[in-house]
Amino acid sequence: MTYTKSESSDDARFVEWVERVIEGVEKHFIAEQSYVVKVNNWFGQRWLGFSGKALGAVAVHNRRLPLPPFVPSRVVSQRRFFSPHARSKRSRTLHVKQHSEENLTRYADVMLHDATVFWYSGSTRKNSRGSVMAYVFTPEGHWPWYVGLRRTGSWHVVEAAGISREELHKFHEEAG
Description:
Layout: H1 12-28, E1 33-39, E2 50-54, E3 58-61, E4 75-82, H2 100-103, H3 108-111, E5 115-121, H4 124-127, E6 129-138, E7 141-152, E8 154-161, H5 165-174
Parallel strand pairs: 1-5
Antiparallel strand pairs: 1-4, 2-3, 5-6, 6-7, 7-8
Helix pairs in contact: 1-5
């Protein structure tokens, strides 16, 4: 199964790395459904748990896990995949145009229920930077993590939050 969508502006090795990590996570954690969202450019770690701005100025990070408020124009594609034993096949548009204050109430446990979401960056060929973020559905709730990568010859993890390099390596290798 192919989870990612590669375009001419994407570095093929980055997209392959993302594909393998998603496949490894999917083998390890079986969610009813998964979303894979491609964002039009690199995004930073601040999107992990970020819900928006209150009164248009102050950044807000909630204890409850909100969906990152990417504006729809930044979303290149949203793909949805179902496990063979999925009970429900309802789909949601994850990124909608709305006021920033409305983003403060779009929580993973409400919007996603038992779904996993992966976000990855596009335009990696020219940027030499890439990012992957996930809200992985587990029996304990959603596990949020972020990984930033940089290309210096080959792609290297330069930043990780919520996940260790060992866990990433394990998922990458489990994809086999």
